[in-house]
Amino acid sequence: MVNLDILHLDIFGLSCKIRNKEISPVEITQQLLKRIEQINPSIQAFITVASEEAITSAKKAEAEIVRGEWKGHLHGVPIGLKDLIYTKDIRTTMGSKIYRHFVPDFDATVVQKLKNAGAILIGKLNTHEFAYGPTGDVSFFGPVRNPYNTNHMSGGSSSGSGAAVASALCFGALGTDTGGSIRIPSSACGIVGMKPTFGRVSKHGVYPLGYTLDHVGPMTRTIKDNALLLNVLAGYDPRDPYSRKEEEEDFSRYIGDSVKGMVIGVPSAFYFDCLEDEVRDRLEAAVTMFQEMGAQCRSVDIPVLSHTSWAQLKTLQSEAYTVHEEHLKQESESFHPEVLERLMLSAEAKGYEYVQAQMIRRQALESFEKVFEHVDVLVTPTLPILPPEIGQREIQVKGQIEQVRAALLRLTGPTNLTGLPSLSMPCGFSATGLPVGMQLISRPLNEAILYQFGAAFENTAGISSLKWEIEEV
Questions:
Q1: How many other CB atoms are found less than 10 A from the CB of residue 46?
Q2: Of residues 15, 24, 161, 181, which has the active-site annotation?
Q3: Which of 164, 350, 364, 472 is the most exposed place for a label (fewest CB within 10 A)?
Q4: Which among 24, 139, 154, 157 is annotated as catalytic?
Q5: What is the pLDDT of residues 373-398, one digit of tens each?
Q6: pTM of this prediction exceeds 0.85
């Protein structure tokens, strides 16, 4: 029998009980493993469950805590990892046939950091094959299903991470984000996901998709949990050529502070173009709630945004093909047809297009910087649509037919191109019970302000980020 009283706790609450020896890390891990056994067949969030390794780590954490050697809020807390993140002696598949038996001989930097913090690695989470897709239903190990309705997508590419956190199969997870792959499943599954400033978190030991677009970040049930995870993950790493040298900081330091007198920007175009009605309604209600909390609201214009989707696409195509060129030459038949098609299209990207894309990237960053001279955060939808059904590839929004992939990526891609920190969090549900996500964006290195706004909304709105009852498939 799974003890839901334990599993409903967030990381902060759980860590306090662990530190006070009210709950044992071994008991927590055993309870999670039981729930994974019950629930995972219905949603396919995990590819590999590291049962033996997790129990061993839990026993070690318990012994350390009994000796008074508490390491911090992640000590003894089970965390899941997207299966692009290398784990020594634990299979790492990239959601692909090609790597289905691959076992790395070293840990990614973020895994080392989690282990040093005493976290328990519960397993490897399903991903859209090679992270090259936002739907989460293309993996050698099967589609990840949305915990709120298993006929619908979880979003991708960090699909297993979103579904596992939402359905209480782990207390937090790591994802990667190249065009929205942390924020898309966070929105679709009703949890909190942060794409930090580019270079904040090391990518060493993380299988790449787009070298200048990839980010690693935390996915959690609450804003505070997210900040606690980022505290552990962030930091300079000389093994990552894109890593930033920044002073250590506590990303949770403004949580609980009022947003009264601060300024939110609401883009007048692009982000609010062509939305499903229920998404628009929830976002308008969220903006009103910020105003009721005392925040000022200002309409802003970012004209270059209409070109960012093309620039992000051309950048990704060029970089993704570089990553996969050898595999395509040697074993193209091992790719999922949909991913193979995208990669073959990527081969057609021209050098001059890549250069043009970098010029647009610079213009976009300058445009955002001008806006942030007048506002603290931008408030936008994360997704323009509700999570589509598994396998659905077209959707009609306001009478216009759009490719599902393009729709899912439309509002998240600009901040991969610019590297700006972006937070997705739940802001309500549709009439049919599907989550709606709100995206908060700020200037570089301003994650703490995003958490301040996110926590203020979370505390006022009181929206749960857990789905206990999961339909059987």
A1: 25
A2: 181
A3: 472
A4: 157
A5: 999 999 999 999 999 999 999 999 98
A6: yes
